[in-house]
Design brief:
Shape: globular
Number of strands: 8
CATH topology: Alpha-Beta Plaits
Number of domains: 1
CATH architecture: 2-Layer Sandwich
CATH superfamily: 7,8-Dihydro-6-hydroxymethylpterin-pyrophosphokinase HPPK
CATH class: Alpha Beta
Number of helices: 4
Structural class: alpha+beta
Helix content: 25-40%
Amino acid sequence: MIEEVKAIIGLGSNLGNGREILREAWDTLGNVPGIGLDGLSSPYMTAPVGMTSRHWFTNAVGRLRVSLSPLDLLSAMLAVETKFDRTRDSKSFGYQDRSLDLDLLYYGTQVMDTPELILPHPRIGDRLFVLAPLVELEPDFLDYNSGMTISEMAKLLTQRITVGESKNQEIISGHWGE
């Protein structure tokens, strides 16, 4: 049995009712043996980043307590995506619209670089749709690659956007209630 580890995941959807899909996916993850739900940020509406789409995303970040290996957790997350009709078109290039996207951002302090999984997630510092909800959930969490807290990383990205060193990322904080 694996010792319980804190994992941080990103949740996103830009097809259908994003808030509803993310809440249901979150609850579904909590029913997987070896996964305990430990906190979910507010939802954020965000313009697509790194792709062209007319559909905005609903994004959130969740904290889990897991007794699964990183690859077993990834497998469980992919199974939940499939349950929510996530399809991947292997013939398409780049990012695609999706009903549900679950990304493993951190798994304890594990560093991993395999074809299946890179930990921590390599683009956290460039994504306001990850950093803003993560600041809400874990502002003092230390990104062990950069040595900065999540709050510091969010501030740095915001500064880079302000001075034009990074593309603008539209984001609006929301709430789970209708």
